[in-house]
Design brief:
This protein has 210 residues and is an alpha/beta fold. The chain contains six helices and 13 strands. The chain has one domain (6-49, 79-207): Rossmann fold (3-Layer(aba) Sandwich).
């Protein structure tokens, strides 16, 4: 199936770091560093068409026309795993605002349960980067996108490390205007709604709570 507005990032560093993330023997420190490197590369692809405006500046030699980003950017991690991507994104776009959406997966139904939200003002005019390392069933992403749209968001881009076909189909079908930027599309979901081959629970591995 062809997915609307899907970018799969192909890069040698991404391929190497995905291998580090997938390896169950990878230490927490190495897992975090690999996550950060991939997040930076994903940010590059997610923001490659940012609008710019010209500004005049003075160099030590003369005056010249430069550029500033011509839109507000809001990063919204889906808690808690989404927090693992925020620092790298802020290193790339330090002026961005950060909101938070708290969700956890019900272990029986595999559906998201909301428990917290804090979204900056101006979301209706901003580019919103919704981030979560894993797009599995698409339940959390679906819930988060619906929430952000109710708040007025019109330009949403979803960033994930690894996506499953089931989640991509759900988001692409329901929200054809939402871009998805991911480092890999894996085979499928297993009976417990984990991505195969995946990398396990991204939040637990990043925060060292496995």
């Amino acid at each position: 199936m062809a997915y609307n507005k899907l970018t799969i990032v192909k890069h040698p560093v991404v391929a190497r770091d995905l291998t580090i993330l997938r390896n169950k023997e990878t230490r927490t420190a190495d897992f975090r560093m690999a996550m950060g490197r991939i997040a930076t590369i994903l940010a590059y692809f997610a923001l490659k068409d940012l609008p710019l405006k010209e500004v005049g500046i003075s160099t030590p030699i003369t005056t010249v026309q430069g550029y500033e980003i011509d839109t507000e950017i809001i990063i919204v991690p889906i808690l808690r795993a989404g927090l693992s991507l925020v620092t790298a994104l802020l290193n790339f776009i330090p002026d961005a605002s950060v909101g938070h959406l708290g969700m956890y997966r019900d272990e029986t139904t595999h559906e998201p349960v909301d428990y917290y939200s804090n979204i900056p003002s101006g979301i209706d005019k901003a580019m919103v980067l919704l981030v979560d390392p894993m797009l599995a069933t698409g339940g959390s992403a679906d819930d988060a996108i619906a929430f952000l749209k109710k708040k007025g968001a019109k330009n949403i881009r979803f960033i994930s490390l690894i996506s499953a076909p089931e989640g991509l189909k759900r988001i692409s079908t329901k929200y054809p205007d939402v871009s998805v930027i991911t480092a890999a599309v894996d085979e499928k979901l297993n009976d417990n709604a984990f991505i195969v081959p995946g990398l396990g629970d991204a939040g637990d591995r990043y925060f060292g709570t496995t």
